[in-house]
What we know:
The chain is of the alpha+beta class. The protein has helices spanning 10-15, 22-46, 61-67, 90-100, 108-117, 129-137, 155-161, 164-174, 199-216; strands spanning 2-5, 73-77, 81-86, 103-107, 142-144, 149-151, 184-188. The strands form three sheets. It has a three-stranded antiparallel beta sheet with strand order 1-3-2. It has a two-stranded antiparallel ribbon with strand order 4-7.
Amino acid sequence: MLKFELDTDEALQQLGLLTLPAKKRQQILRKAGRRFRQNSLNRVKDKKNVDGTAWKSSNSKKLFKKLKQKKSTYIKTTPNSVEIGFKRQRWGKLARAHAIGLEDEYSVAESKKKLKKAKKPDYKAPATRSQAKELNRLGFKWWNKNTKKYKSISQKRISELFTVAQAGIVIKLLRPSKKNNKETWNIKRPKRELLGNTKKETRVTRQQILDDALKIF
């Protein structure tokens, strides 16, 4: 969450901005909030912290694609302050987790519950691309009658030969069994600053607030 308050800014107090009608102050602050938000979203796009350092790499490209969208955020204004944050939905919770570097705990039981709620696949449909890719990774080979040898086959051919159910069984058989499987595990997220402004950006936005106020006086 990012917050800016008029009553804590000495220069804005001296200007007499606080004497403006409440509605006018809110309009000025909402405009400033949009600037603050855009600065932050630009950094999310560039995957950088406020100090310019790069974020630690992540495999989740989809996550940051969502977080850099304006619709994932909110701007809340009062006559004396503006607050920018991420909405309290799935992306909002994830944004908060990344912003403060939360460690989440997952469990086998929790995963099973989610699978039960998830839409069931069509087991009679052709094997999916991800299944075919996994079979190739596991070294799956098909018996060739002509050469009398086992031979690797393409992902396309796997989809033609197997259904989703059949591919799932073969994958399970090929995967090495793991002893002492964990019932719970933790995922530690590196801290990534999603909202915030540099001193220069704050100074520029403050000047723009002053300019907007002077147009009214």
